Amino acid sequence: MATVAAGTFTVVTSEMLPVGLLTPISGSLYVSEGTAGLTLTVTGLIAALSAPLVTAAVGRLDRRLVLCSLMVLLAAANVLAAWSPGFAVMMAARVLVGVGLGGVWSLAGGLGVRLVPAAAVGPATSLIFSGVAVASVVGVPAGAYIGELVGWRAAFLVVAGLALLVTAAMAVLLPPLPAEEAVALGGVLRLVGNGRVATGLAVVFLLVTGHFAAYTYVRPILEDLSGVGPSMIGALLLAYGVAGIAGNFAAGARVGRRLRGTVLVIGATLAGSLLLVPLLGLSVAGAAVLLVVWGLAYGGVSVSTQTWLGLAAPRAREGATSLFVAVFNGAIALGAFTGGRMVDGFGTRSVLWLGGALALGALAVTLLGRVPATHTAAAPQSPPRALDSPTVSGRCLDS
């Protein structure tokens, strides 16, 4: 499980790395900060497209082999980003990061149930998704620190080396993982007809779009609104990430019993922390407190919404996970893109209002939409079925 968590850590660190380096990247490549934010947008967009496509394309290939191949691709993409002589090459590198991210995340997210006994699936899924939270603790702040010390390009090279180490660990430590099910693209898309799946995807879209509309530009926000100097950015992002880890495991401990309540608490806390930054985050101390609350709330998003999708489609885990990853990363892309346009046009405060409003929208959807019953979390799993079978398009999709 730790190896899979290391994989999610590496892919999310690769995706998020520009967040802590946005200012030096924009200066080095001669683009605005809003344009530099496209490095996150394109990665999220490609990951959204590649998640269901890669899952369908690999067919019945051993998942260990596929994960290792995607990690090698990720390493190569980060080397290309480090070398980038101009913004066009950087964007090409970020496209490759998106392919690796979408594939690794869509496959890794459903492995918890295959690697541990049924009673431990919830904690195992939390451990896999702790890689996402730890990427905020170690990955993004470490990238910011490395950027301050030896330049932003070195940060991408470090992550490339990490991807190769994780590849070796996966090859040695993971057992063979033959495909459980034939994941046809048409069957994946039919899962959207499940009301509980559709509601969960809507919640993911609103929470993640709102978060990344603001978080992509957290460095300019801290610098412009709160007066935080460059030397303090890494420390504040570290505090955010530590809170994110706590939020991940706190949500993982509760979500199997109180799914709706957990998501409501996450949405309300996220909305409050974003909306209060322009009012109470105008000093370093105020910004630090709100950033910790923000991290605590967002840290629980991945594990709670992934659990939602798993409960909504228990017989089509890989398909549901690929949709989850597609929507999640599409939301990252949209949030980063919309936030960039608003930062360039209306200033940094505007993205905080937008993020808070979208989090409130997620609250409404969670209250009014269809939520899967949590008692099925410990139920025995039925034998997997092909996603393009008539059974899955009928009874299984409504389970």
Summarize the structure.
The chain has 399 residues and is mostly helical.
Describe it:
It is a single chain. Helix content is 79%, strand content 0%. It has 399 residues and is an all-alpha fold. It has one domain: MFS general substrate transporter like domains (Growth Hormone, Chain: A). Helix 7 runs antiparallel to helix 12.
Keywords:
mainly alpha, Growth Hormone, Chain: A
The domain tally reads 1
Q: What is the 3D form?
A: globular
Structural class: mainly alpha
Round the mean pLDDT to the nearest integer and report it: 81
Fraction of residues in β-strands: under 5%
Low-confidence stretches: 376-399
Rg, Cα atoms, Å:
20 Å
Give the distance, in angstroms, between the N- and C-terminal Cα atoms: 28 Å
Characterize the main sheet.
Answer: none
CATH fold name: Growth Hormone, Chain: A
DSSP strand tally: 0
Q: For the record, what is the CATH homologous superfamily label?
A: MFS general substrate transporter like domains
Q: Give the count of helical stretches.
A: 18
The top level CATH class name? Mainly Alpha
Task: Report the CATH architecture.
Answer: Up-down Bundle
Q: Output the helix-strand order.
A: HHHHHHHHHHHHHHHHHH
User: Helix fraction?
Assistant: over 70%
